Amino acid sequence: MLNSSSISKQPSHSHIKSAKVIKGTKGNWILTKTIGKGSMGKVKLAINETTKEKVRPTTSIRDIPAANHYKNLQQDQAKEFRIIREAAIMLLLDHPYIVTLHEILLIDQYYYFVFDLVSDGQMLDFIISHGKLKEKVARKYLRQIVSAVDYCHQNSIVHRDLKIENILIDKEGYDE
């Protein structure tokens, strides 16, 4: 579901410094602070302008430059193919331990992926800040990881970049 809407600066959101608003099929998204950065793009916190939801339905939006930002045509085409393939796969997945992709927007040479927010960040950061996990908690997280990977494999999907930095956690239900 690609959409070529526009981006605008929104002066009415004075509490959010230089917020961008992107118009999607499921409402307007106010892009706020950058909460992550990877090889494919940035992850920004987004709030639905219509509903003002800030808890679970708050989303993260990954902005990925479209292919024509690069000099080599073959690299451009390969990157474009990877972006579209990832989007197609993510739209098909429906599992409680795999983040949900709600919509994909193509605006001003950027792809915007609208995901649910996983509020507590990377598992690596969690382990570094809390020390080793208790066995019961480690078992819970491992079961969830194995369940998600098994679901992917049953659907002929291989992650190919499974590492602790790519595992996001939500401490909801975390028992000390």
From TrEMBL:
One Pfam family here: Pkinase
Keyword Iron found: no
Keyword presence, Kinase: yes
Provenance organism: Clydaea vesicula
Family, per entry: Belongs to the protein kinase superfamily. CAMK Ser/Thr protein kinase family. NIM1 subfamily.
Every Protein kinase domain range: 29-176
An example Gene Ontology biological process: intracellular signal transduction
InterPro entries, per the entry: Kinase-like_dom_sf (IPR011009), Prot_kinase_dom (IPR000719), Ser/Thr_kinase_AS (IPR008271)
One Gene Ontology CC term in the entry: cytoplasm
Keyword annotations from UniProtKB, A to Z: ATP-binding, Kinase, Nucleotide-binding, Serine/threonine-protein kinase, Transferase
Any GO MF annotation of the entry: ATP binding
Superkingdom per UniProt: Eukaryota
Name assigned to this protein: Serine/threonine-protein kinase KIN2
